[in-house]
Write a structure and sequence with these properties.
Length: 105
Protein backbone atom coordinates (compact mmCIF):
# COMPACT_ATOMS: atom_id res chain seq x y z
CA UNK A 1 0.00 0.00 0.00
CA UNK A 2 2.79 2.47 0.77
CA UNK A 3 4.31 2.40 -2.75
CA UNK A 4 0.92 3.30 -4.23
CA UNK A 5 0.44 6.05 -1.67
CA UNK A 6 3.88 7.47 -2.42
CA UNK A 7 3.10 7.53 -6.14
CA UNK A 8 -0.15 9.38 -5.49
CA UNK A 9 1.53 11.91 -3.21
CA UNK A 10 4.41 12.48 -5.60
CA UNK A 11 2.28 12.88 -8.69
CA UNK A 12 -0.23 15.27 -7.15
CA UNK A 13 0.74 18.89 -6.62
CA UNK A 14 0.46 20.25 -3.11
CA UNK A 15 -2.98 21.82 -2.80
CA UNK A 16 -2.43 25.52 -2.29
CA UNK A 17 -4.89 28.14 -3.41
CA UNK A 18 -3.39 30.75 -5.73
CA UNK A 19 -4.47 33.50 -3.34
CA UNK A 20 -2.46 31.78 -0.58
CA UNK A 21 0.69 32.59 -2.55
CA UNK A 22 -0.34 35.91 -4.08
CA UNK A 23 2.04 38.71 -3.20
CA UNK A 24 4.58 36.39 -1.61
CA UNK A 25 8.20 36.23 -2.68
CA UNK A 26 9.53 32.92 -4.02
CA UNK A 27 11.24 32.12 -0.68
CA UNK A 28 7.95 32.79 1.14
CA UNK A 29 6.02 30.68 -1.37
CA UNK A 30 8.47 27.81 -0.88
CA UNK A 31 7.91 27.92 2.87
CA UNK A 32 4.11 27.82 2.47
CA UNK A 33 4.41 24.92 0.03
CA UNK A 34 6.80 23.08 2.34
CA UNK A 35 4.50 23.57 5.34
CA UNK A 36 1.58 22.14 3.35
CA UNK A 37 3.73 19.24 2.13
CA UNK A 38 4.69 18.37 5.71
CA UNK A 39 1.04 18.30 6.76
CA UNK A 40 0.01 16.20 3.75
CA UNK A 41 2.87 13.72 4.11
CA UNK A 42 2.33 13.19 7.85
CA UNK A 43 -1.43 12.84 7.30
CA UNK A 44 -0.76 10.01 4.84
CA UNK A 45 2.24 8.33 6.45
CA UNK A 46 1.22 8.89 10.06
CA UNK A 47 3.38 10.21 12.85
CA UNK A 48 4.30 6.82 14.31
CA UNK A 49 8.05 6.48 14.56
CA UNK A 50 8.69 10.24 14.38
CA UNK A 51 10.44 11.62 17.45
CA UNK A 52 9.34 14.80 19.18
CA UNK A 53 12.78 16.28 18.44
CA UNK A 54 12.40 15.63 14.71
CA UNK A 55 8.93 17.21 14.61
CA UNK A 56 9.93 20.17 16.80
CA UNK A 57 13.06 20.93 14.76
CA UNK A 58 11.07 20.74 11.54
CA UNK A 59 8.36 23.05 12.94
CA UNK A 60 11.06 25.54 14.05
CA UNK A 61 12.42 25.62 10.48
CA UNK A 62 8.95 26.51 9.19
CA UNK A 63 8.22 29.05 11.94
CA UNK A 64 11.50 30.82 11.09
CA UNK A 65 10.22 31.28 7.54
CA UNK A 66 12.36 28.47 6.13
CA UNK A 67 15.13 31.05 5.83
CA UNK A 68 17.87 29.56 7.98
CA UNK A 69 19.48 26.22 7.23
CA UNK A 70 17.61 23.53 9.07
CA UNK A 71 19.08 21.14 11.58
CA UNK A 72 16.49 18.41 11.25
CA UNK A 73 18.30 15.09 11.50
CA UNK A 74 16.34 11.97 10.56
CA UNK A 75 17.48 9.04 12.68
CA UNK A 76 14.67 6.50 12.51
CA UNK A 77 13.26 4.68 9.49
CA UNK A 78 9.99 6.64 9.66
CA UNK A 79 11.93 9.93 9.76
CA UNK A 80 14.02 8.95 6.74
CA UNK A 81 10.85 7.94 4.90
CA UNK A 82 9.24 11.30 5.63
CA UNK A 83 12.41 13.25 4.79
CA UNK A 84 12.78 11.44 1.46
CA UNK A 85 9.13 11.97 0.58
CA UNK A 86 9.27 15.68 1.47
CA UNK A 87 12.42 16.14 -0.59
CA UNK A 88 10.73 14.67 -3.65
CA UNK A 89 7.47 16.55 -3.04
CA UNK A 90 9.26 19.89 -2.79
CA UNK A 91 11.36 19.17 -5.86
CA UNK A 92 8.11 18.49 -7.75
CA UNK A 93 7.06 22.03 -6.78
CA UNK A 94 10.22 23.50 -8.31
CA UNK A 95 12.45 23.74 -5.25
CA UNK A 96 16.03 22.54 -5.10
CA UNK A 97 16.77 19.45 -3.05
CA UNK A 98 18.93 21.66 -0.82
CA UNK A 99 15.84 23.59 0.36
CA UNK A 100 14.66 20.97 2.85
CA UNK A 101 16.02 21.22 6.41
CA UNK A 102 17.41 17.70 6.68
CA UNK A 103 21.01 17.81 7.88
CA UNK A 104 22.82 15.75 10.46
CA UNK A 105 25.90 16.86 12.38
Amino acid sequence: MRPILAILLLSAPIHVQAQDLEGLTWPEQKCVLYDRAVDAAIAHLGSGGLTEEFLTDNRAFIENGCQTPGNVCPRRDAEFELANLLTIMTMNEGMASTFVPFRCP
